[in-house]
Every structure is written in structure tokens, then in C-alpha cells.
Amino acid sequence: MNPFTARLYGGLAVLVVAFGLCPPVNAAEEGKITIFSAWEGQGNTIQTGPKSATFVGVFTGRVYVETDKGPIDSGVMICPATVAIGLEDGKQQGSAICTITGKDGAQVYAEVACTGVFLVGCNGDFKLTGGTGRFEGVSGGGKAIIRSSFREITPVTKGATKDVGSGILYVKDLDYRIP
């Protein structure tokens, strides 16, 4: 290879790395962020015992990441969920499996588990379980706060209702690691 060609290829290699066209060998990223979602949900609550009921439904909403310059719209969340409800004491225990899709189509998968009070909300854990695209292999988690702000309950039949509601999901100090 002549000296001119060697310099040309060397210069192209510098440009490729400089413009991010070729990721560095150790491109792991980790950090701590705060996320929140204003969600809407719908589903059904069915009496599943003399003193218990179970909600089965789906929550959806925009996801925002807090930054120094304010919240940034970061994608859409959809979470199929179940909530076991004590009819006498109002205690609830819920879980959901969520998919968060970024504007570029990359996805993050998460699990949420919490306990609390029916029609008020619950506290628990938000665990990152994987992802696609730029989030492939993501892991981490944090403490979740889920609150209901509106709920419309329509009787369907004895012991069953159709529910529509809204609220927030808030995860402060969500630790994440992308390999």
C-alpha cells in the first residue's frame, strides 16, 4: 500500500470512530435516572372469593425521563397487569409486565410488583429485565410508586365490573446498566 492510500484509510478510520459509526470496544453504559408515566388503564375486576377480588387489565401511557432541563418524552409504555384486592380491608397486591418503546423503536422490558391500598395506589419494585436495539441486555431497577387519580367503575354482572382509570408511575433513582 502506498503512503497516500495508507493515510486515506487511516483518515477514514478516524472519521468512522469520531462520528460514532463504529462503537468503541467497551461501550457499556450505566447510570441512574428518574422516570415517570402518566398512565390510563382499563380492565375488569372480578370477585374471586368471599373476601377478595382480582383486577385484570392493561395500563398504557407516555414515559418521561427527568433531566436538568426538565422532563423529556422518551416513549410509550404498555403493561398488562393483575391486582389482588382484599374486599374487607382494601389491601392490594399487584404485578405487571411492561414494554417501553422508545421513539426509535428500541424497547425496554420491565416487571413491577407492589402492595398498597385499593383505589389509592401502591409502592414496590421496578425491575429492568431486558431490551432490544440500543437497550439489548439492559438490567437494573428501582423503587416504584404507583398512584391512581381517577377511577370509573361500571357494574357488568353480579361480582364483576368494568374499570377505567388513570394515574402515575414514578421511579426515582432507577439504576440501569447496558452492556
Note the main attributes of this structure.
single chain, 179 residues, mainly beta, AOC barrel-like, eight-stranded antiparallel beta barrel, 8 strands
Give structural notes.
- Helices cover 9% and strands 70% of the residues.
- It contains one helix and eight strands.
- An eight-stranded antiparallel beta barrel has the order 1-2-3-4-5-6-7-8.
- The radius of gyration is 22 Å and the shape is elongated.
Summarize the helix and strand pattern as letters: HEEEEEEEE
Largest sheet: 8 strands, antiparallel, barrel
Give the percentage of residues in beta strands.
Answer: over 45%
CATH topology, by name, is: AOC barrel-like
CATH architecture: Beta Barrel
Report the top-level CATH class: Mainly Beta
Strand order of the largest sheet: 1-2-3-4-5-6-7-8
| Coarse shape | elongated
Assembly status: single chain
Class by alpha and beta content: mainly beta
Radius of gyration: 22 Å
Helix count equals 1
Topology:
Layout: H1 3-18, E1 29-49, E2 52-67, E3 70-86, E4 91-101, E5 107-117, E6 121-131, E7 139-157, E8 160-178
Antiparallel strand pairs: 1-2, 1-8, 2-3, 3-4, 4-5, 5-6, 6-7, 7-8
